Amino acid sequence: MATDYFAVLGLSRGASDTDVKKAYRRLARDLHPDVNPEPEAKERFQEVSRAYQALTDPEKRRIVDLGGDPFDNGQGAGAGGFGGAGFGGLGDIMDAFFGGGAATRGPRSRVRAGGDALIRLDLDLDETVFGTTKDITVDTAVLCDACTGAGTAPGTHPTTCVTCSGRGEVQSVQRSFLGQVVATRPCPTCAGTGQVIPEPCPKCGAEGRVRQRRTIPVKVPAGVEDGMRIRLTGHGEVGPGGGPAGDLYVEIAERPHDVFTRDGEDLHCRVTLPMTAAALGTTLTLQTLDGEEEVDIRPGTQPDSVITLRAKGAPRLRATGRGNLMVHVEVQTPTRLDAEQEKLLRELAALRGEDRPAAAGADGGHAGIFSRLFK
Ligand SMILES: [Zn+2]
Ligand SMILES: [Zn+2]
Question: What is the DSSP letter of 82?
């Protein structure tokens, strides 16, 4: 069922753009998290903001008018992307609506959550197949230990910003489609925090965080594939003001292997056999990731046959068992026969009645034209 975004704003279907904007403004003023601390209000504000976006964005409105839900991506309405922030930035809409700044009522915290970080980890095939533990070196923001995130020099404290008297915002009158509105914007002196740091921490320069190179072990589970990411919770960037760290994502990059190529849980390799070995049968010793394996080549093996070594592939990441190792057989026809070899082959051909062969067509039948081409 598509959400009725008109109903969310207390409107009937087909309400005009102006009505949508009016309704949104009225509701947003009561529900905005900066004015209404109730958790229900926050939820309701998100709904209202989503409805506003659905009805004012032309692309989304088109979907609504067709009876669809522009936020329904199969994971429920408004399911967020990376980082699970849900509906992106409550302030964004307010900014768009009021020409910036209305979302910044009251001083905002210096402390903000940190971002995620991404690092690439190159691994060999046996490491992705069997799993490994690797030390990785990352260069991310970590908490400043000199001020533990406060950003102040030892023994000093932040003071109230004189530009905004600690409110974190300054006001100006602006003209907009709503007529004259008083717009608030973050205080330029204190960046909206309401406080200034007169004596910044000498180590982090009031940032509350510093960049640091460190080495951490990463456990790579057996069966990972190229491009997969391992998440290390809380190992990303520490935020401004020592805010909680984001996550660190380790992206697996699998180095190509000399012998094996990988297709998910299966491994593939090629072996080339002399024609005689393919005809007579033989046993090959193949160096697999598990060690040496005897591969039985049956007499009469055809070119492009595939021999499957069960459970010698990569482990299944989210299930038990392993994939297979597929050995693709190529058969080599001898070239440059010496006189004796040629004589033997001719004798063989004669014994097999193949000295006047009829060429088989693609369908396995006799191809009339080609059957005359023998020497
Ligand atoms: Zn200020
Ligand atoms: Zn510091």
Answer: G
